[in-house]
Amino acid sequence: MYDYAETTYKAYPLACKPGCSLCCTQKVFATSIEAHYILDILSEKDLEKLFQIENYLRPKLTHNQILLSYKEGSEPPIEEIPESLEPCPFLTEEKLCKIYERRPLMCRLTASTISCEKGFAELPPFLFQISTIALQLVENIDLGGLYGNILDLLKFLYQYKKGLIEEIPDYLLNTVDVDELPILPEEKDLRKWVGNLYRIPVKEEFTFRELLQKLRSDFKNYEALSFLKVNFLVMYKGKVILNKREAKNIYLLGIEVSKEILKSFNPGQFLKIKINERMDPLIPRPFSIHAVDKNVVYILYQVVGKGTKALSEIKKGEILEFLGPLGKPFPRLKNYIICAGGIGIAGFGFLLQKAIKKRSFYPPEKIFYGAKTKDELVRLSFLKSFGISVEISTDDGSKGYKGFITDLVERELREKPKIILACGPKLMLKKIKELGEKYKVKTYLVMETFLACGIGFCMGCVIPSKGGNYLHLCIDGPTFLAEEIDIGFFS
Known about the structure:
The chain is of the alpha+beta class.
């Protein structure tokens, strides 16, 4: 869309030239997909500058809502434009655009055939007409997206991506898909311009028009626009293909989902699963990603309350909704060991899968896995399939070493200190933290606490850190350096 519109503009004798920046103001309206395209290239310094800017124009309607108003015979609300507008924050000292290659469509279509220094601009009627249509089409492409001042959109997307905001601000508007273009029968040149655009091959198997139609069709199934999946926390749906009992109260759940969704999953992250359409339990429950195979994500969970009891009763073929992936992935560690207590083993399967395939993660030197009794040791054959040494302990001595798994970890540290990555009960984590301090090794703990929203908004999952501050498990974790955590948390 950008390329085609700009090619048309270049055929006209425009007065615009590098350094001419009178039209480069803070009054730039755009769609969220355009803002996402820009956000990728902004530095933290650029973003800091954006958050210092306030009091700029915000649209009352989207571009397509204005078109619908005229179509229905009503006048849209008048935008109040001040006598002077502040310059765009992306202008350099030389008055050049810092984001020129990715600037929004409105910027690309703002032009004049005379010098704007005279106090006004002139645009040929045909260019004005195609700019109206181009803006309509870009809003159509951003299905399910947002519309607003580009500064607001960038701030919002950045905060949403970081988990710092949950609600969409009122000043950001929902995009509207308007298929009918404002072209009169006698406007043959304009109709020809649109026809040529629609016939441009965008992918090998699609023209522009066909791909736009496919987006509309796919969006009904939540498969349109991959950036919405990655950066917006939407509820996905998946079919249960397995809900198998592994031990007395431990189950393995398999959910079939799109491979495109699975691409965004990383070891150490978690999902929040909603139990059908029931109101009780209302809040989706958090679960570590245990493993991924083809287009199936596996969750290893223990029945401990109402939510997990309801999940254990889900049958093969039923549909579940889930939110995620949430949280930060495991740190990229070398020369480390894993220590898991009970259901704490759940999150390490996916890590081992990625590590063995050498995809951003390294395998541990050894796995230490403990439980109360041998009946609670699950997925042992799966763990051993990676060719990594697994040491076992049970509290009652029914399998492996009799005693706590931390005893075996300490024996290992005496021989050769290593980084520890641990997940399990609080008492185990407290002991691991103490061992790390004793043997002067870095220790990473995968924490667990009450978790409601999953994106840092409700403050329900805060963990006390040293110095009197708090960490959000859902966005700062769930994996933390042990030295960051206040010892009181383990009491």
